[in-house]
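Model: You mentioned two targets. I'll fold them one after the other.
Researcher: Yes, keep them separate.
Model: Target one:
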Amino acid sequence: MTRAKVRIDQASLTFAELADIEEELGTSLSALFEKSQARGMAALVWITVRRTDPAFSFDDALQYGPGDLDNVDADPEALAANNGGALHTSPASGDSTPVT
């Protein structure tokens, strides 16, 4: 079966959509991806396609595979704290001095 690629843009997901995934699957997103990357990716397919096809179900999404996805590359600087890159830290606590 040939189908159009699903463009996954994680940065475009709303908190409501992410909450819908957690409610549908009965687990937090972090636990979902820790337990099953495949089900986590299917959840992203489901929530993305559902935007234009409300009848699209999670079971429908499970029929997709990696070749059916077109992932949007995230900003590498925004992800640096999550991928082992340099952390963005705040200055040490204490009195702050305004820049003049």
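Model: Target two:
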Amino acid sequence: MSTTPPSPAEREAAIVERYAIIPDPQERLSALIARKSPLPGIPPEERLPEYLVPGCQSRVWILPAMAEGRCHLRVEAESAMVRGLVTTLCELYHQATPAEIVAHEPALFEALGIARNLTPTRLNGLAAVTAYVQNFARKHL
């Protein structure tokens, strides 16, 4: 018997609940960055220009694929901090349907009080990642 993966909103709520217990936003950010990503990475030979996310200051690759009506994401970034933020964001959308992805605007960094500690460039990069994944999902609606 197959179980349905959690929705992006459910995943986001679980991440916020897990990290909100850390009182300091900087420590929350450090914990997010230090955690092991549940998403598969992308080996160097597969980090092709077509998978680079436009609008990111640091190089970020997202290799999306569809399987059984759900989006599967592989993620890589040059910077450890960016990798931690991007994989956390992409974790919301991994194994979600295109409709779920398009319908969900992430707010986890605001909910955790981390957004105010990120530079405008990083916030723009995270918005670019969201747009990249949502555009992929729109093509598969």
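Researcher: Noted. Anything on target two?
Model: The chain has one domain: 8-138.
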